[in-house]
Design a protein that fits this description.
This protein is an alpha+beta fold. It has helices spanning about 1-15, 45-50, and strands spanning about 30-35, 40-45, 55-65, 65-75. It has one domain (about 1-75): Alpha-Beta Complex (Ribosomal Protein L22, Chain A), CATH 3.90.470.20. Helix content is about 25%, strand content about 40%. Strand 3 and strand 4 form a beta hairpin. The protein is globular.
Length: about 80
């Protein structure tokens, strides 16, 4: 859910622009946690090259087998 939220936030910022990468980029987005268990996003490869000078805020939730995520991409 978190990777999809990041992709949707990014694609929304590119409204009316052609895609800059192929559709299958999920493997270039990683969810990591800090020592306190707080989630953050680590970008790799071409995604990291296209998303420079941004901060990605991520919020995760789950209930049983259902998961949800909300991502905001902040321009620095």
């Amino acid at each position: 859910a978190a990777k999809e939220a990041v992709i949707k936030a990014w694609s929304t910022s590119l409204f009316a622009s052609p895609p800059v990468l192929p559709e299958m980029i999920h493997h270039l987005i990683e969810v990591v946690t800090d020592a306190w268990g707080r989630p953050s996003i680590r970008l790799r490869g071409d995604v990291a090259k296209h998303l420079t000078d941004v901060k990605i805020h991520i919020s995760l939730t789950h209930d049983g087998d259902m998961a949800g995520a909300f991502a905001v991409i902040e321009s620095l």
